[in-house]
Amino acid sequence: MRVDTGNAILDIPYVAAEAWVRPALPLSGDKVILDKAGAYTLTQVGDKIRFDITAANGTCTVTSTNAVTAGAFAHVQGAYDGSGVSVLLDSLRTDAPCTKGAIVPTLGGVFSVGAAANGATPYDGILDEVRLWGNPPTGATNYSGAYGTKLAPGRTCKDILTHNPYAQDGTYWIDPDGSGGISPLRAVCDMTRNGGGWTMGLKMWYYAQGTFGNANAQGAPEDALDRRGSPYKLSDAVINAVIGSSHNFDVLADQAGHNSGYSAGNNEFVVLSNYTGTWTFAALMPESTSTTTMRSYRSQDEALAWEGRLACGTTGGAHPSGKGINCNNVVSGNNPAGGSGCTINMGTSTSASWHLFYTAEHNADTYLYICNGAQHSSSYDVNHRFWFRERS
After folding, report:
1. Cβ neighbours of residue 179 closer than 8 Å, sequence gap 6 or more
2. Rg of the chain (C-alpha set)
3. Cα 103 from Cα 12, distance rounded (Å)
4. Domain that includes residue 349, residue range
5. 72: Cβ contacts below 8 Å, ≥ 6 apart
6. Which tens digits make up the pLDDT trace of 37-74?
7. What span, in angstroms and rounded, lies between the C-alpha atoms of 56 and 358?
8. Residue 191 maps to which CATH number?
9. Cis before 26 (ω within 30)
10. Is residue 152 part of a domain?
11. Residue 326 CB: number of other CB atoms within 10 A?
12. Is 202 among the domain residues?
């Protein structure tokens, strides 16, 4: 693809360029991934990746030390931030100093994907998700798609989304306490709902296998999104590290499947905002020390169905033998009543007593009774999921 862009594409001082590549044989010669004529070029050279820039005071180039594999996708990135030029191949970074000034403006220059701007040295293979970034921060390695991998973990899902606004839902590597005692680990991230950046911490249902009251980790990310099946949980220590030292966080509750006795579908997710406290699933958590807000959203379009506040902990009427965050009594807003008190009623039955948000009641059941009827997990093929996002 050759695009005559004039001055429309990233005629700016500093740049990061990335793509996914799947090279074909033979792995020899120069094969251009992308090129802005006279400014910067990302090239596969044999089985290596090279990034070249032309700046006001000269040129700089850097070549990866690791190699691509024919027939296998790899993530590649070149970046220049005014102090150095770097190339990234599957999260392994190679740097070279470069203080040549701003990239030369290329008024009228052609931007090309899959070949040089003049049509020469075409790429042999598949290219996908080509992206350009203007003015990358100093040390632009992992600026986008590579951040959140094993060699370049993010701190949390929210941190990964901050670095890469295009990050999609999926499994990423996180290191929530940085240089602390927690080793990097894989985590399931929701990057889309309610602003994104949610780290899944708990999958729970009625008497889930050994999960009730368990402060330790269970299962693997592959288990997280299945309906019931194998348990999944991050350890309390990891969840608290995700939340951070302020202990101020939001929780998103949703479910896999639905309780068909009270609703026709999995129609709702609920966000509890501004909770302050130390997370534990080994005991019932006390009421938040900051004032919380709870909102119910319709899943299909994130339309707001209800907003108010439920009291949590024993002061909210929760049983002291419950685990995690359990909220019951209505403090502000309408009584949602499972739907009849909501602006959008998503359930098929309602009751004045249905205003519950329970990670685990004393009988090990999970409850989400807001605007989609009585969504409990006993006797039905449904489980609830709880996602965490730090606020600072």
Report:
1. none
2. 25
3. 7
4. 157-390
5. 22
6. 888 999 999 999 999 999 889 999 999 999 999 998 88
7. 61
8. 3.90.215.10
9. yes
10. no
11. 26
12. yes
